[in-house]
Amino acid sequence: MTDSKQRIEAVADELAIRDLVAGYADAVIRNDPEAWSETWAEDATWIVGGQATEGREAILAQWNGLMSLFEFITQLPQHGRVEIAGDCATGRWYVNELGRPHGGEPSLTLGVYHDRYARHGSRWQFQRRRFDLLYVGPPDLSGTTFPFPTDAE
Known about the structure:
Blueprint: H1 3-30, H2 33-37, E1 40-48, E2 51-54, H3 56-67, E3 70-85, E4 88-101, E5 107-120, E6 123-137, E7 144-145
Parallel strand pairs: 1-6
Antiparallel strand pairs: 1-2, 3-4, 4-5, 5-6, 6-7
């Protein structure tokens, strides 16, 4: 394979992974469980609040439970980094989430996703996704902050 073809494929892979992250957030905002679950590999792991959930079906069940808590939620991915090695890749993404639980006060969550991706056929999916809090509380930033995690695993 020529060097220019390899570079084109690397750019295409990175764009596909960036689109995966955008599709995940879009499905959150639209509360679309089918589109959201398609971002995950069948044998994926999702880690939220230190709790690991294994497998796409279990991950979707956990997500449905979390989403049912909110009257409104929006997830805004900020900037991210992607490193690709063949059919595997890693990434780190910063996100803002604004939400209003049913009958509750608005909240702001700032965090970072530590991702592993795998290519399945012609598409990329999350193989592992861990969310770490950086801030949670009122949108005026008077809530609780957390240090940046030192362990990316």
